[in-house]
Every structure is written in C-alpha cells, then in structure tokens.
Amino acid sequence: MRVDYKKLGQIAIDPEYRSKLAKDTSDVLANYLYMMSNLNADVDDWSAAEMAMITNSLNRWQDKKTFLNRQSVSVGDILMVDLGLSYAPELSYGHPTLVLEEWKNLMFIVPATSSSSKLMQAYHPTDNPEGKWYYRKVGRVDGFAHDCVLIINNAKIISKSSILSPMGKLTCDLHDETQLFREVKNTLLKHLFYREWSANQNLNQAYNELQENFNLLMEEKNLAESKIHTLKQQIKELQKSVDNQSNRM
User: Fold this and answer.
1) What CA–CA distance (Å, rounded) separates 85 from 39?
2) Residue pair 89/149 in contact by the 8 Å Cβ criterion
C-alpha cells in the first residue's frame, strides 16, 4: 500500500488541520493505517534484536516526545542515549555518546559504536595513525566501558530527553590541545567547517609570526640599550680623562 506523501504534506502545513484530531480526518487516518500495514509487512524480515530496538525507541519517543529534560550534563560526559530511528549511515537506537557542548535541554554529541569493521578502520594516534579521520578509536583508558569508535561525522544536536543513563566521563584534560577531547573538536572543525578552521589556522600563524618578530625586535632593542649604556660609560670615562688633562695644564 502506498502512502500519499503529497497529500500528507499539504495537510501538515494547512492551519485548518492543526486543531483537528487525526481520528476525525479520513485522509490522515487512512495513510496512517497504510503506513502501519507496510511496517507490519516488514516485520517478518527483522531480527528479534532490531525489533526490540525499534520498539524501545518508538515507545520512548511516545512517552517523552514533549518532555523537556534540563538535567545537569557536563562537557566531556559519556552518556547512553536513544538516537531514535535514523536514515543510514546515521546511527539509530541506543548508543554511547560523548558530550561536546550542552545548552539547557539540548546537547551536541558524538555517538559511538562497537562495530568491529569500524574499529579496524578507525584512527588512533598509536594503534592506527593512518585510520579514517571520521572514526576515532577510544577505550577504557579514555573513560569508555570498552573499545569502541566515535563516529565523528555523525555529530549532532539532540534533546536531553533522549538520555538513557550516565556511563562516565572522559579521563583526559579537556583543555589540553594534545589530548582526546580537543582532538575530536579540532577534527570536527577541520573537516566539517574547513573554511573556519583554515581561517583560524591562518590567524594563529600570523600571530606566531608577529610574536616571533616582536621577540626579535625586543632582543635588538635590549642589545641596542646595552650598547648605549656601554657607550655612555665610555663617554664619561673619556670626559674624566679630558677634565684631568685640562687641570694639569
């Protein structure tokens, strides 16, 4: 059975239908039943695990879709969240995530997976320095429960209502540019916001060049002042000699 996407799209934007109940609108109800029929037809091909995850995600969304969760979340937290139903290659269902930023009831996260194929491809500074930039291998030493992969190009903003449970915190210094947290953020900037990253790199390079030139000029200034001081002392000594010579005459 085919769902009439065009008809549903028109209804969705028509103000007249915003106060009408779906059960009293034949077109909406009929298409909903078509959708459920199509969904049920796919059930025979689903694994028990997939059906369990779909059921969990749909039911959680039904329970919490209007709930605004303002629970305390910190940058660097590792949380298990429900990512819901997504289009491939986005991750769906429950996954560990790393919190990069948070605002009120929203947070910016990078999800993780324990997929063995992605673990083999993932970048790691010592285990696999030639790995793919958008897969970053992490493990117990970083604060995760086991080895898994941060899917950096799946980073997204999600509701705090999707939080299932806390899992821990990153073990690294969040402000150290050489450690994991800053590495992940810089990788995001470099590959997903290249123009901004490049502009920032150019500014940093220009600043470093100016700082180097300033330091050289300060060295030259200090050297010149030292020479001036030496010359003044020599002038004083010469002046004394001239004065003594004049007195003898």
Assistant:
1) 13
2) no
pTM of the model: 0.76
Cβ atoms of 184 and 172 within 8 Å: the answer is no
Q: Are residues 171 and 83 in the same domain?
A: yes
Mean of per-residue pLDDT scores for the chain: 91
In the chain, helix, strand, coil percent, each to 5?
Answer: 55, 20, 25
What are the tens digits of pLDDT across the range 110-131?
999 999 999 999 999 999 999 9
Predicted pLDDT of residue 79: 97
Show contacts of 40-48: CB within 8 Å, 24+ apart. none
Read off the CATH number of the domain in which 113 is found. 2.30.30.110
Phi, psi for 49 (deg, rounded to 5): -65, -45
* Total structural domains within the chain: 3
Are 112 and 105 in contact, with CB atoms under 8 Å apart?
Answer: no
Q: How far apart (Å, rounded) are the C-alpha atoms in residues 58 and 63?
A: 9
